[in-house]
Write a structure and sequence with these properties.
Layout: E1 17-19, E2 25-27, H1 31-50, H2 56-76, H3 89-104, E3 113-114, H4 119-144, H5 149-172, E4 178-179, H6 184-188
Antiparallel strand pairs: 1-2, 3-4
Helix pairs in contact: 1-2, 1-4, 3-5, 4-5
Length: about 190
């Protein structure tokens, strides 16, 4: 691949539009751009999480996820080209396998948990919430035109993996999960 980004400041977006991969332009608030932006934000959060020096197995998994998310952004920037899908059921299955492996070593949940514990786990929970938003944006985009169903499935599995990964990171840091105290309202009266 040659130099594709030779000029970063092009002024072409000053009117509130942005370019897509097929050369067309659309509003920066278009549902497609909202979806791409949420995926980009998620990828950036994963980059921040990766900068924290996670265990090698999690580093490797999240690095693969980052590449898949970048691929998904590329897929979405080419509207009306369903034959250009880059994510398939295999990528979602890989996430599910990782999720099952991590979850098998964790105690079963009997209560809801709040985001928190160790800083890495809290950041993982934040990434999970952004992942859920990205998933919602893809579902909204799908209402305006077909979206690769494997992409929606991938984000759904990824948010589950990030939840389990947060619990795993708390366990590695010897921090307990933060349980929601539903009785607190009864005790406050």
């Amino acid at each position: 691949m040659g130099n594709r980004l030779t000029k970063i400041c092009t002024h072409t977006g000053d009117n509130g539009t942005t370019g897509l991969g097929d050369g067309s332009r659309t509003g920066k608030d278009d549902p497609r751009i909202e979806a791409i932006g949420s995926i980009d934000e998620l990828n950036s959060l994963l980059g921040l999480l990766l900068s924290h020096g996670l265990p090698a197995d999690l580093q490797e998994r999240l690095s693969r996820v980052q590449h898949c998310l970048f691929d998904l952004g590329g897929e979405l920037c080419l509207p009306d080209q369903p034959d250009r899908a880059v994510l398939g059921a295999e990528q979602a299955a890989e996430l599910e396998t990782a999720l099952d492996e991590l979850n098998a070593a964790l105690p079963p949940l009997k209560e809801f948990i709040l985001p928190g514990g160790s800083p890495d786990a809290a950041l993982c929970h934040l990434a999970r919430t952004v992942c859920r938003r990205a998933e919602r944006r893809l579902v909204s985009l799908d209402r305006t035109g077909p979206v690769n169903p494997a992409a929606i499935m991938y984000l759904n599995r990824l948010s589950d993996l990030l939840f389990v990964m947060a619990r795993h990171l708390n366990r590695l840091a010897d921090k307990p999960d933060v349980y929601w105290q539903h009785e607190r309202r009864l005790n406050e009266k």
